[in-house]
Fold this sequence. Notes:
Elements: E1 10-14, H1 19-32, H2 39-52, E2 56-57, E3 61-62, E4 65-68, E5 75-85, E6 94-103, H3 108-120, H4 124-132, H5 136-144, E7 159-160, E8 174-180, H6 187-202, E9 205-210, H7 221-226, E10 229-234, E11 249-252, H8 254-259, H9 261-274, H10 298-337, H11 356-371, H12 374-387, H13 392-404, H14 408-427, H15 439-477, H16 480-496, H17 501-514, H18 519-545, H19 552-566, H20 574-579, H21 581-602, E12 605-606, E13 619-620, H22 622-651, H23 654-667
Parallel strand pairs: 1-5, 3-6, 4-6, 7-9, 8-9, 8-10, 10-11
Antiparallel strand pairs: 2-3, 5-6, 12-13
Pfam families: PTS_EIIA_2, PTS_EIIC, PTS_IIB
Domain PTS EIIB type-2: 175-270
Transmembrane segments: 316-339, 359-384, 396-426, 438-461, 482-502, 522-545, 584-603, 623-643
Amino acid sequence: MSELITAELVDLDLSAATKDAAARSLAERMVAAHRVTDLDGFLADVAAREAQMPTGLDGGIGIPHCRSEHVSAPTLAFGRSARGIDFGAADGPADLIFLIAAPAGADDDHLTILSGLARRLMDPEFTAALRAGDDPGTVAALIRGEEPAPEPEAATPIRTAEEAAPAEDAAPFRIVAVTSCPTGIAHTYMAAESLTAAGRAEGVEVTVETQGSAGFSKLDPAVIAAADAVIWAHDVEVREKGRFRGKPLVDVGVKAGINRPAELIAEARRKAERGEIAAVPQGEGGDGAEGGADGGSGADRAHFGVRLRTYLMSGVSYMVPFVAAGGLLIALSFAIGGYEVADAKSVADHFVWGQADSWAALLNQIGSAAFGFLVPVLAGYIAYGMADRPALVPGFVGGAIALTVEAGFLGGLVAGLLAGAVVMAIQRVPVHPTLRGIMPVLVIPLIASAVVGFLMFIVVGKPIAALQSALTDWLNGLSGSNAVILGVVLGLMMCFDMGGPLNKVAYAFAVGGLTDPTDGSLKVMAAVMAAGMVPPLALALATAVRKKLFTKTERENGRAAWVLGASFITEGAIPFAAADPLRVIPSVMAGGAVTGALSMAFGCTLRAPHGGVFVVPLIGEPFLYLLAIGAGTLVATALVVLLKGARRTAAVPAGEATAAGARVGVTA
């Protein structure tokens, strides 16, 4: 691994406070070492990979990584953080951060070495040595394997597909597993090592097929035939699924294979004992031959749903900054110059420095320019999430056409999905090696843009525009009980997962209405933001009025939740929901439903897509709006306190409660 990491690529005092800052700091070392050619382009690829799935692992490890055309040579940078950096791991921040950069066409030898590192990270003695090292050169040598360091048990190495063979006197229970992740660099091999180590501890023989970037070596058919159960720990489609037909199957994401392998093995054993057989497609073994007429197995459909959600959330996540910047600028322009500023002349032709109206018009037109990117960015990054960089051009083109044919937000969604699907289809076509270099930069964008443009202009654009118009008319026609019911539904969605998929769907629905604002869409935006503020505000209030029901850490989180709730950051309630979901989540959902219903009933409107209480002056019926938020917060707080108090009372045995009461009586 000597060409992958050197002392200059090691930072034993990483001062970054966020994962983005950590990636930038380590990437700058790669640029200085002439391993990365475009810092911002590479970091965009790292961020896109991070958006697919957090790269934090239990045990204080963060492994941001990606393939990128901006990487000139496979490279590994290492940083050690004293304060810890949140990479999304369940057990807290990471102090060991590995930034792995692989070229778009990285060779198998380098990726094999990187996969070896991923496996070694599962060894606690190796990570302990990394934490104890005090010299960058020594740590780099340790990572390269040149320094004597604890290795995984040599007597029981991971059994890979090419090494495994059926044995007559093997362990009493045999499992074959497949691990894979989107980039196939780290998680794939860490999950393999974790499952194998857990199998050794449980006395179970686990044979793993790693479908990663370092190659795809099939399990011996005899090994599969002898297996008692199958585990798939994957975030991309398992190749040649038909080989595993007729076996009990545990089908999970790759991080489950890393973080809870013993649970997966136990579940596989239970399924085998019950005789559960998975409905794996009966293909000939190739990817293209496996789907049945019904669209594949239930597991396949479930994974398609997960992937579809990931694609849509990728587009929404890139769209939100445009929405926030553009929407807040437009809202501020209205606050300064009134709604008529939207009809002002172009400030490029007419601008008076000393007139407030000119400044209002300037803000409005800048915000409108930012808003104009909303639908193309949504479509472009949905396509990007599906088929990577070659899909950006047809995605943006499709999104722009959606605006041209007045298909709006819905048109952007469809255009992004079409662009991604078309590019994925083109990528499946075998081409001569001499053409591979120009495929992603010329051939694919050219053909895909033409196909998506044809579909959007001629086939689907107008029907979607009609549907968008009907939706707008429906929103404008909402009144009375219909509006209240919609407010209830949106409030429930905003508070159910607090920043998760349902929350994002409700928010995206509201933001989509701002692309062509009407009275109905502005009411929806108001209800969504009001309901999203309730969870953190309610938990903050609950920790203040009944401190004894919460831990010291929760009370500290409660103080921060005041600001988060007031700023419309629903995620501020997540620590409370994670600690006690059965009591917290129903309580805040009830409060959100009350707030959403009242906001719609009061006819509150909102032109800004974000801002919380800081944009109250821009809200229609601001006092009633605050009343709706207050009512929902009180309802959620009361339910949280009631449910937590009931749990605490129930936890005290009856005899102890009686004795406690007697002691109180004596004291009195």
